[in-house]
Specification:
This is DUF4440 domain-containing protein. The protein has 3 helices and 7 strands, in the order βααββαββββ. With 118 residues, it is an alpha+beta fold. It has one domain: Nuclear Transport Factor 2, Chain: A, CATH 3.10.450.50. The two termini are 26 Å apart.
Length: 118
């Protein structure tokens, strides 16, 4: 059964998502990485990263490759274990600005899947 997304106050997002978002904003790789399940996957910019080591490398790479600011513009609860977070990024990456949709799947309170796309 498909559920309709429900607008969610960002303050009410699950702890793992908040930890990831805060870690990214603070450029704290270990804090952001701790929000993921050991065998999680991340898909970003056409690449998929599987497992804790690959995700930690991806976090470190993206935090050092570009300088950017992030603004949370909205969030929805898509299902009991699925959330979409909307962010606006501005920085020195190609294009300079982008609106992203971060789709999270949680398993046992940790992020098991993250898909990032415009």
């Amino acid at each position: 059964m498909t559920q309709n997304p429900t607008s969610t106050d960002p303050a009410d997002l699950p702890e793992a998502i908040t930890r990831y978002l805060t870690g990214r904003a603070d450029k704290n790789v270990s804090a952001a990485a701790s929000a993921f399940a050991p065998h999680a996957t991340v898909t970003d910019d056409g690449h998929t990263y599987e497992g804790a080591e690959a995700i930690t490398r991806w976090l470190g790479q993206t935090d050092t490759e570009y300088s950017y600011t992030t603004t949370l513009t909205g969030a929805e609860r898509d299902a009991p274990d699925r959330y979409t977070v909307h962010q606006h990024l501005e920085g020195n990456f190609p294009g300079g600005m982008v609106d992203l949709h971060c789709r999270f799947v949680l398993t046992r309170g940790l992020i098991s899947e993250l898909r990032i796309a415009p």
